[in-house]
Amino acid sequence: ANEQKSFSGSDLNPQLSEKGLSQLDKISSLFKNKKISGVYCSPLSRSIQTAKFISDSLNLKLVLDPRLSELKIGDWIHGTENPLVKWMNYYNEEKSKGIPRKNIRPPKGENSWDHMKRLASFLEEIKKIEGELIVIAHSGTNKVLLGMITGKDPDEFYTLPQENGCLNELYFDGKTWEVTKINDTSHL
Questions:
Q1: What is the pLDDT of residue 1?
Q2: How does DSSP assign 47-70, residue by residue?
Q3: Which of 19, 24, 98, 187 is in the most buried spot, having the most CB atoms within 10 Å?
């Protein structure tokens, strides 16, 4: 979907492309010599394909977690040429009317604050787990997560780069999260 420049976020569920499938060995090899405690992923197929390949190669159970899904665009996901552009235009129009940012949502969808709540809940849960974890999510979800940890304003989350197949590293010291690597594609 990305190669065809078509929108593939939210609840749309395309499979990995041939290129994505060919990158699985390269991505998986990054974790061969690490002591990984668990593999988590969103319930969307491209995330599952990647995570299953990695979890199988490490002989670990795969945990599907809907909190890792992309932002829900709601009713605009179907029948709209580019729902993300429509959402951003709507968001900016409503904001210019003085409507508080946290109250602006697409019909039956969510905003960055809703997305942050889901991800904060996920982070709270995994920080109790000992060892290194692999989390397979999506570009938008990664941008929100990284934006939260680095203290960006929610309106700036989507300016963070996230290439397909990239690696981000997060470290939790028992009190705070730190981003130690962002958008690394050197393995590809």
A1: 45
A2: HHHHHHHHHHHHT--EEE-GGGSP
A3: 24
